Amino acid sequence: MSLSYETAEEWAEELSLSVDPDLETLEAYALQRHPEIVAALGSQGAVLAERIRPGANERRGTLSCIAGLLLFGAIGVAPILGVAIYAEAPGVLFTSVPPVAAGTAIPISSWCFGITAAVLLVGAIVWLVRGARWNPALLGYAVLSFVMAGFATIGLANVAARDEFAGLAGWLWPVRAALIVAAIVGFAVLLRVRHRAPDEGDAAADPDPPEAGAQAGPDAMELAAAMPEEDRERALADRNAALDALGRRGFLTGGTVDRARAVPLGGLGTFRWTGKPDAGTAATG
């Protein structure tokens, strides 16, 4: 857990006298051992739920990042390896490394460009399905592939001639396919340079925003009612102790505390009060 206080009562005892207490936050502290319920409490609960379980989020984020890097590396390396496999390094760098024989270099290069062409085709299909908007990453990959495939169409012929390799024509088809597909995809993306994705804050990106107060997912009271009895009693006792602490410190009147205690566990988000003594009211909605 990563919340500032281990219990709701501790949170209530330490709450600054200069602010009105947020009862949704109070209940989140009482239920913090059950982040799935905290997440259903409302907007504040969703924020606190992310803080309660950062370990899992960080692990997922790290694994996603590693997987993304590996995938990007594999995709990005293909057209580069397609040229590097037959190219001769400058002698000042690798004087003892002989050039790769044509019988090995040409098939590997051909397979690399076959992968490149397939990746470009899949990328183009996904791009079209998602609206064919301006995509600099896809354009960059298409340009890289086009340049590398262009080099390979000439370089592989030179390598075949150097080693008297027969059957080059069949191995060149994937290279030429990558060259053509890269040119088409790159040109298509360039034509969409003015069609950019809307900003995240643009209302057009969410034409039907949820109504104020609308809550997605399961109801927090239902989730709390389904808790193991021992956990539910512990959380309820902690919540009520925190409410008593707020009453004792002058945040809530005695009547407001009594009405808040009567609300089912998980339901303080629907409890309405003004935050001023003698003005508490209980309502659900």
TrEMBL record:
- Keywords from the UniProt entry: Membrane, Transmembrane, Transmembrane helix
Span-the-membrane segments of this chain are: 61-86, 106-129, 138-159, 171-191
Protein name from the UniProt record: Membrane protein DUF2157
| Annotated source species | Leucobacter iarius
Q: What is the lineage of its organism?
A: Bacteria, Bacillati, Actinomycetota, Actinomycetes, Micrococcales
